[in-house]
Design brief:
Belongs to the pyridoxal phosphate-binding protein YggS/PROSC family. This is Pyridoxal phosphate homeostasis protein. Keywords: Pyridoxal phosphate. Its cofactor is pyridoxal 5'-phosphate. The strands form three sheets. The chain has a six-stranded parallel sheet. A two-stranded antiparallel sheet has the order 1-2. It has one domain: TIM Barrel, CATH 3.20.20. The two termini are 14 Å apart. The relative contact order is 0.16. It is 39% helix and 15% strand. The chain has eleven helices and ten strands. Helix 4 crosses helix 5. The longest helix is centred in the first third of the chain and has 21 residues. The chain is globular. By secondary structure, the protein is of the alpha/beta class. Helix 4 links the parallel strand 5 and strand 6.
Length: 274
């Protein structure tokens, strides 16, 4: 169920929990249809946009149903949870994308099982990953996370530091830069959300003008269940969609995004968000 928004407000969704392959198939089809409509509004081919289902907090038995419905790559925020799932579901051949902040002491685990890391925002993390990847004899696709909302509690590079950071990354030869990632501000105010996505696209284009190699393929990972259509209109090439595929989470968002929800972490009521 979706409540129709006022002008310039994102819709409020009531995401039902998928508990069968048929329900997952329907949810995925609905998301893909929304992706296609958003792409059509701005003259983009839907095939240019990757859907990354995010399975954080979802138990393994339901993740298996999603995989049976066609999910071949899944996103996770917490390394420990992702590691457990990658081991438990190893028989299914799923690729795992880490999309949450990385503590350097978890770099070995990420280097062992992840096919992609979308939240690179420090040279310490780059060095730790590179060292572990070199030892394992493998490489890793990475997106550089940018703090486009200028919220001090959020992870991600300040936009003004992006160029210098990107110019340092070639020394870490096991890391393949694929593009940029961001979390928009958590609000129902569509223009404010759109500004975050527009800024990431602008930064990508600016880096390409300076040196096409800085951002690799130039991908833009942006947009989640509440705002992915806006992200697509602003150029997203990957949307990270959890609740619209799996259903509403029982665990509060502050458990997975404490930097974005400091008020929840402190026990205060959450503010409005998509």
């Amino acid at each position: 169920m979706t409540k129709q928004p006022d002008a310039d407000e994102l819709p409020i969704h009531d995401f039902p929990t998928a508990t069968s392959v048929a329900e997952f198939t329907r949810n995925i089809a609905d998301v893909r249809a929304n992706i296609a409509r958003a792409a059509a509004r701005v003259g983009r081919p839907p095939a240019d946009i990757q859907l990354l289902p995010v399975s954080k907090t979802v138990p393994e038995e339901r993740v298996r149903l999603a995989i049976a419905a066609g999910c071949t790559q899944l996103g996770e925020n917490k390394v420990q949870e992702a590691k457990r799932k990658s081991e438990t579901l190893a028989d299914l051949g799923v690729e795992w994308s880490m999309i949450g902040h990385l503590q350097t002491n978890k770099a070995r685990d990420v280097a062992a099982f992840a096919s992609e890391f979308q939240a690179l925002d420090s040279l310490r993390a780059a060095a730790a990953l590179d060292r572990r990847l070199q030892a394992a004899g493998r490489s890793l696709d990475v997106y550089v996370q940018v703090n486009t909302s200028a919220e001090p509690q959020k992870y991600g590079l300040p936009p003004e530091e992006l160029e210098a950071f990107l110019r340092e990354l070639p020394q870490y030869t096991s890391l393949r830069v694929r593009g940029l990632m961001t979390l928009a501000i958590f609000t129902s105010d569509t223009p404010r959300v759109r500004t975050c996505f527009t800024l990431l696209r602008t930064l990508r284009d600016r880096m390409r003008e300076l040196d096409p190699g800085l951002v690799g393929d130039g991908g833009l990972s942006m947009g989640m269940s509440g705002d992915y259509e806006v992200a697509i209109e602003e150029g997203a090439t990957c949307v990270r969609v959890g609740q619209a595929v799996f259903g509403a989470r029982q665990v509060p968002d502050s458990h997975y995004w404490p930097e974005a929800f400091p008020q929840e972490t402190a026990g205060a009521p959450p503010g409005p968000r998509p």
